[in-house]
Target: Phosphoribosylaminoimidazole-succinocarboxamide synthase
Amino acid sequence: IVKKDLLYKGKAKEMYTTNEPNTMWVHYMDQVTAFNGKKKVQMEGKGQTNCEISALIFQDLAKHGIKNHFIKQIDSNNQLVKRVQIIPLETVVRNFASGSFEKKFAAKHLMKFDKPVQEFFYKSDELDDPFINDFQAEALGVATEDQMKQMRAIALKVNDRLKEIFSEMNIDLVDFKVEFGMDSDNQLILADEISPDSCRLIDRETKKSLDKDVFRKGLGALVPVYKEILGRLEKVEDVK
Ligand code: C5P
Model:
């Protein structure tokens, strides 16, 4: 497979076309950003750990019947994925209060929810990714009612499996974000990445964050934390 043109450069990844029309080449960059790009740092090894973590998780989800865009790993920083039309929504699932939920409602930090809380945010840098509900998304033509339903259902399945995986790593899954796209068969599938950039993870023993909050809150070096996640993930029997 041959990498061709840069189609899109995001905050953590570059997407290239390839000689196969339905296959994209994703390069995970050694860059980390927070607060809608206002905080940005280059970090050696960050792209590699996220690329590998995301690959392991997507492969595991596929084994558990959750369709996603991952095709294969090329090398440490690069992978092939199916070309999809991204639905410009961030689908968030929360198991414990943190981040924007905690702030918005002055909720107790890490209060455990009886059932997962689902939220959608509209992907827009100019608007700072505002909260969006199903009616608003449908009115704006961002997604159909059926797509919203499918995204909700799949996100809950992802939550169930991720909770199992992280539990085996002695980690609580606080919350995470996923994105979806439509593939060439017009099927809605999971896309983007699943990594410590897009999840909140708390070590059950030390109660320390093992995710991008380390960077957001300036709690120390990020790459060693991501390497710790990769190391534990590789030891999970069903995942490796
Ligand atoms: O900030 P908030 O509490 O809404 O984030 C919920 C989850 O979504 C967190 O795991 C965070 O890392 C993730 N997220 C993301 N990309 C964004 C916003 C949030 O991956 N642009």
Q: What stands out?
A: The first strand starts at residue 3 and ends at 9. The helical segments are 46-63, 99-105, 134-139, 145-168, 213-216, 223-234. The chain has two domains: 3-82, 85-220.
